[in-house]
């Protein structure tokens, strides 16, 4: 059976098929990815009203692609106090956020209890708020720092009220590439194992892939298949988020930046390869809002959210520092021909605009 026949009949695609998909023209890919998207989600484009908080940028790791951590490229180290974080949460709750998304650097000085206590404080004061926190990379860092197992850290997160895990730290799973861009950080096997433990606890998470740096197309397909294999076992991934590499203020010397066409092809291929992950997020922070809206025609069905403030990708050149206000967000979706659907963190529909 050839590739087009497989696409026509919804057959599961192999690694070789994934590589071959890149040889199809953009609009053929878009046709099949959009058909899959409409079969799953019709013309709905999901978003949530959320707030990103990045509590510290002091990091023991020096990932080559990172412009956020305090280093030679970013000489302004900080670590927020619990009072500062709670003030931000209070201000954001007044703006009707449904989710607080807490991700930061691997700071050896803040301490495990610092994390656990802030999650508990947020949950006690705002029990209705969904806490999405600690990437697999942060969990691995804390387990090494305190000589605890990954399961120990997860148990502490659950006890403190963390509701779901973000997908960060996956980068690209190929270990040769990882050595060059984020050596010393969580390995691909550890990342997958941590998410498996989280899913086994009855919780859901997201998965990401950082692309457009020094990886090849084959590395992206390998990454997707490893996620698909784990999803076959656990069913715990909510959404896949292909993150577009940001090129400013970091140590990777990437000469040829991704074209819009390559980004859209990768989005469409993600929708076709990941037949068991329900949602595909075009994270507007890394792709720009305009391209993220176009991606809704190429398989994506989610834009993330209003965010309010974002520090990690904006440090590397993304235009995301102050988020997007709700009214503008909804208008952008509707003007693009989609139905704007506010969701909670687990994709329950809250409001159709």
What's this, in brief?
43% of the residues lie in helices and 13% in strands. The chain has 353 residues and is an alpha/beta fold.
Under CATH, the topology can be stated as TIM Barrel
Categorize the overall geometry: globular
Task: Quote the distance from N terminus to C terminus.
Answer: 43 Å
Helix content: 40-55%
User: What is the residue-averaged pLDDT?
Assistant: 89
Stretches where pLDDT falls below 50 for ≥5 residues?
310-320
**What is the beta-strand fraction?**
5-15%
Question: Could you explain the architecture of this structure?
Answer:
The protein has 353 residues and is of the alpha/beta class. It has a single domain (17-352), classed as TIM Barrel. 43% of the residues lie in helices and 13% in strands. The chain has 14 helices and ten strands. It has helices spanning 3-8, 15-21, 26-41, 82-93, 112-125, 136-146, 150-160, 175-182, 188-200, 217-234, 260-273, 284-287, 289-295, 326-335, and strands at 44-48, 50-53, 99-102, 130-133, 205-211, 237-244, 279-280, 302-305, 339-343, 349-352. The strands form three sheets. The protein has a four-stranded mixed sheet with strand order 8-1-9-10, with helices on one face. The chain is globular, with a radius of gyration of 19 Å. The chain starts with a helix and ends with a strand. The model is unreliable at 310-320 (pLDDT under 50).
């Amino acid at each position: 059976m050839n590739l087009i026949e497989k696409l026509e009949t919804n057959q599961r695609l192999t690694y070789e098929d994934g590589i071959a998909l890149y040889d199809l023209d953009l609009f053929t890919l878009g046709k099949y990815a959009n058909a899959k998207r409409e079969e799953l989600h019709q013309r709905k484009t999901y978003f949530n009203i959320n707030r990103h908080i990045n509590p510290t940028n002091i990091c023991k790791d020096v990932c080559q692609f990172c412009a956020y951590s305090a280093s030679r490229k970013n000489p302004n180290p900080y670590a927020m106090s619990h009072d500062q974080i709670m003030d931000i949460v209070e201000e954001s709750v007044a703006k009707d956020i449904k989710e607080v998304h807490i991700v930061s650097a691997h700071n050896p000085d803040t301490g495990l209890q610092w994390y656990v206590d802030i999650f508990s404080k947020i949950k006690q004061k705002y029990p209705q708020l969904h806490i999405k926190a600690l990437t697999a990379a942060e969990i691995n860092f804390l387990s090494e720092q305190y000589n605890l197992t990954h399961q120990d850290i997860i148990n502490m997160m659950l006890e403190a009220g963390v509701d779901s895990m973000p997908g960060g730290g996956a980068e690209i799973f190929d270990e040769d590439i990882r050595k060059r861009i984020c050596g010393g950080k969580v390995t691909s096997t550890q990342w997958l194992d941590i998410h498996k433990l989280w899913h086994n606890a009855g919780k859901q998470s997201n998965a990401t892939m950082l692309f457009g740096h020094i990886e090849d197309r084959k590395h992206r397909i390998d990454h997707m298949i490893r996620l698909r294999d784990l999803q076959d076992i656990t069913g715990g991934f909510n959404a896949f988020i292909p993150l577009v590499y940001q090129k400013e203020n970091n140590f990777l010397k990437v000469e040829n930046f991704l074209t819009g066409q390559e980004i859209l092809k990768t989005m469409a291929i993600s929708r076709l390869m990941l037949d068991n992950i329900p949602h595909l997020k075009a994270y507007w922070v890394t792709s720009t809002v305009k391209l993220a809206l176009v991606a809704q025609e190429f398989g994506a069905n989610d834009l993330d959210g209003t965010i309010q403030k974002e520090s990690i990708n904006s440090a590397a050149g993304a235009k995301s520092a102050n988020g997007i206000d709700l009214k503008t967000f909804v208008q952008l979706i509707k003007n693009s021909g989609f139905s704007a659907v506010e969701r909670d963190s687990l994709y329950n529909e809250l409001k159709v605009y």
